[in-house]
Amino acid sequence: MRDPRIQKLAENLVGYSVDVQPGENVLVEMIGEERDLLNAVIEEIGKKGGNAFVELTDKAIQATQLKYATAEGIKAWAEYDLIRMQKMDCYIGIRAGRNVNDMSDVPEDKMKLYNSLYNHPVHSEQRVKKTKWVVLRYPNASMAQLANMSTEAFEDFYFDVCNLDYAKMDRAQDALADLMKRTDKVRIVSPGTDLSFSIKGIGAEKCSGQKNIPDGEVYSAPVRDSVNGTINYNAATLYNGVTFENIKFRFENGKIVEATSNDTKRLNDILDSDEGARYIGEFAIGFNPYILHPMKDILFDEKIAGSLHFTPGQAYDETDNGNRSSIHWDLVLIQRPEYGGGEIYFDDVLIRKDGIFVLPELEGLNPEKLK
Asked: CA 353, CA 364: separation in Å to the nearest integer?
């Protein structure tokens, strides 16, 4: 018998997140070997009258493929998959796999080719901009290990997070999105961080289960050349299978002019992928009440209660500051007291301190109100 929590998640993905309508084509990509959720999603698509298309992906195989790939081969691969993506109305990406580091020994030059020639046209330009999409992880032993939890305990945590009442969260986000749309100056202060920028005229978008599961953020973007100061991220992050820690950026007029980490050379190689990679494409505030600690999985980490992320690379169309890049790297700063605390100011008014919203109209986003 299938776990009823998996069935509920499938119903939410198909009926709420991408809202499948009769006759719509839905591409379901499963990265990894787990099949229960995949089968449940296919069933729900059928119940809604949609057409399910399935892609099974193995990251270890893909790593081997990329090691020997040429630019011409990646272009042909992208052209083939782009045609399929253009025929899709919806996309559901389920990401599992046994080892998050499967891609770590793919040469950096091959990953740059893959990101620019495949990911950018197929996903950033077509899937993100022209389909209804949602991506999520699957609760397997590998993820439990990253979270320093038993598999059973992690599954309980996962379903609390993913089957949250996102409609309730959506309503609570209105006040923050409205405030961000009216804001000019932002200042972020934490240990090692003193950062200032403008979000005037950029807008703000709510995230409450339509694009990501788990979810819980409102995002905008800085005016491209307005960022000045330093930021010291305190959540470790994976990029192309490599772990980065203690990332610190210094900005002058929007550009990252100094970048250090536990692997400073590799970090700067990524930031040199193209001109836009040294500018910021997203600023977001996270508040999922069940996600408290980083686990090197950005779908979870960027939603951590009391966090924010400040993202080098491509801007979203909905909050477009004009930055273009093959990179979009969500990097997380947690401001709860156990991570050093910190403040966010909008137009010189304190809106969040030590991870807790202090304005009355924003208190609905604090953990006790969202659970």
From this structure: 15
From residue 235, alpha-carbon distances to 52, 249, 330, 334 in Å are 37, 14, 11, 7
Nearest CA among 331, 309, 325, 312 for reference residue 115: 325
What Cα–Cα distance (Å) separates residue 66 from each residue in 54, 59, 111, 114, 192?
22, 10, 8, 8, 38
Reported as a single tens digit per residue, the pLDDT across 221-248 is 999 999 999 999 999 999 988 899 999 9
Count how many residues are written for the chain: 371
Token digits of residue 311: 């993202």
Q: Which residue in the block uniquely carries the two structure tokens 């779908």?
A: 299
Buried b (16+ CB within 10 A) or exposed e, 207-241: bbbbbbbbbbbbbbbbbbbbbebebbbbbbbbbbb
Alpha-carbon gap, residue 27 to 131, rounded angstroms: 10
Q: Rounded CA gap, 27 and 89, in Å?
A: 8
* Distance in angstroms (rounded) separating the CA atoms of residues 188 and 222: 12
Q: Which residues contact 204 (CB under 8 A, 6 or more apart)?
A: 176, 177, 178, 180, 181, 218, 219, 220, 319
Bridge partners of 27, per DSSP, are 53, 91
**Tally of CB atoms within 10 A around 369:** 14
Taking only the tens place, the pLDDT of each residue in 46-91 is 999 999 999 999 988 999 999 999 999 999 999 999 999 999 999 9
Residue 368 DSSP SS3: helix
- Of 140, 126, 97, 132, the closest CA to residue 19 belongs to 132
Pairing of strands 349-353, 343-346: antiparallel
pTM (two decimals): 0.78
> Are 316 and 334 spatial neighbours (Cβ–Cβ below 8 Å)?
no
Listed in sequence order, the DSSP H helices in the chain are 4-12, 36-47, 59-67, 71-86, 108-114, 128-130, 141-146, 151-162, 166-172, 174-182, 264-271, 298-301, 367-370
